[in-house]
Amino acid sequence: MEQQLIETDAIRQAMVNAGWDMDIELTANAVETTHLELPRVRIEHMDSGRHRMYIDSLESYLGADTREIEIPGNKLTAVVFAEQFIRALWTDGEEIPACSAINNIPVAHEPLSENCRHCEHGVIGGACKPKVRLLLLAEVNGEVRPLIINLSPTSIKHWNSHKKKLARSGLPVVAVNTSFELVDTKRGSYRWAEVSVGMDSGIAKKEILIMAKKARMEFEELTKRISDADFSESGDKQ
Questions:
Q1: What are the Cα distances from residue 227, in Å, to 95, 98, 129, 138, 159?
Q2: End-to-end alpha-carbon separation of the chain, Å?
Q3: 187, 159 Cβ separation under 8 angstroms
Q4: Against a cut of 0.70, is the pTM above it?
Q5: Phi/psi zone of residue 155: left (φ > 0), alpha (ψ -120 to 50 degrees), beta?
Q6: Which of 110, 134, 150, 163 has an alpha carbon within 20 to 30 A of 54's alpha carbon?
Q7: Is residue 188's pLDDT more than 80?
Q8: Cα(192)–Cα(174) distance, integer angstroms
Q9: Do residues 200 and 179 touch, judged by C-beta distance below 8 A?
Q10: Distance between CA 235 and CA 238 in Å, rounded?
Q11: What are 110-132's pLDDT values in tens digits?
């Protein structure tokens, strides 16, 4: 069946004219969801070098054009309120990883090792795919929203360098405006985008810090789980 585009403003007006309160109806119609459905910052790697950073705001009935939100200049500035080192080991053809871990502690039902540091698959270049998962607060279309960005292995070094500079400056990660920007990278016949990380426009505003504190508590459940969406980029399961 062909999906029709929904004009939400027209629907809201029609409901108001009929005596309905749309906000009340939306609240009553809410379903139980997981915090893993936060919008995600994704990267489209292009052989031409014209890589793209965008926000995947998840599927809806509003049409494909509304799902992807462009990030101007492929640069996002945000406050990072949570960080995790995640891993997953995939078996060919399987949708669920054979083993997975958060901060080197396995969370799989039948882990291959008690600790990733002692696992043969967790060595550099091993079959277990590492990522850094960051929870952010960023201004999107004039509204501050929580987002997720997963840094791939080649971008983790930029994140670690950023943290070291902050530590030498006596600054916690959450206190600053952190920038994420695409950098074209080539090695042999391969071309991809790495994410460089730095400090942009100094210290975070007080109101954002208050929101970040609340967001860390609100999304605590997310930090206890790994989702298939965390490893849905090209090459993650190979």
A1: 11, 13, 14, 22, 21
A2: 34
A3: no
A4: yes
A5: alpha
A6: 163
A7: yes
A8: 28
A9: yes
A10: 5
A11: 888 888 888 888 887 788 889 99
For tokens 């695409």, the residue is 182
Q: Take residue 148 and report the two structure tokens written for it.
A: 């997720």
40-89 pLDDT, tens digit each: 999 999 999 999 999 988 655 555 555 789 999 999 999 999 999 999 98
Strand partners, 84: 133
CA–CA gap between residue 43 and residue 195 (Å, rounded): 9
**Position 91, amino acid:** T
Bridge-based pairing of strands 190-203 and 99-102 is unpaired
Chain centroid to CA 122: how far?
Answer: 22
Of 118, 115, 38, nearest in space to 82 by CA: 38
Write out the chain in H/E/C secondary structure: CCCCCCCHHHHHHHHHHCCCCHHHHHHHCCCCCCHHHCCEEEEECCCCCCCEEEEECCCCCCCHHHCEEECHHHEEEEEEEEEEEEEEECCCCCCCCCEEEECCEECCCCCCCCCHHHCHHHCCCCCCEEEEEEEEEEEECCEEEEEEEEECHHHHHHHHHHHHHHHHCCCCHHHEEEEEEEEEEEECCEEEEEEEEEEEEEECCHHHHHHHHHHHHHCHHHHHCCCHHHHCCCCCCC
